[in-house]
Request: fold
Amino acid sequence: MPTSSELQVNVAEILHKPGVDRPLEGAWDLAGLEILLAKVTGPVHADLMLEGVMEGLVVAGSVSAEVTLQCRRCLEEKPETVEATISELFSDDPVINADDDVYSVDGVEIDLEQVLRDAILLVLPSSPLLCLGDPSDCPNRGEVSEEGRVELAGRRTDPRWSELNKLFDESHGANSSANGTKDV
Reply:
């Protein structure tokens, strides 16, 4: 996790000075960047231009990160790279800062951490489908047994399904007893 000073950038020389700009490149580890089926696994890389404008300054450029995506169909994981383009306004004017789409300038410094987090989280796919095409092409699909249960040959079962599997086993056992059949 970056220290607060790593992503704090002094912008005194460009704040409120239209046309004055400064490049900024770097890579930072931002802990906790993940959603249900996607997780950032490496540093967030940024290639930015900080440009002074009348209202404060604009941070524009590209942001990228290595992520691990988990397929919503088969639960296989796959490494990918996500990229985002940003253009964000920072201002020290309280009237402008009343808008939720504007980041604040603290004295003569800006904090880029929230901008980078927002940019990457917004491009993470919420429900990645990594095995494209026919569902039977999915390497983790498994076979459907006579009882209707999917058997994942040689594959792990997602632990999130354990309670549902118990309910299935209980209801399957109750149905067999009612029919006078017995599970072997």
Notes: The helical segments are 94-97, 113-123, 162-178. DSSP finds three helices and ten strands in the chain. The first strand starts at residue 8 and ends at 10. Residues 55 and 107 are 14 Å apart (CA to CA).
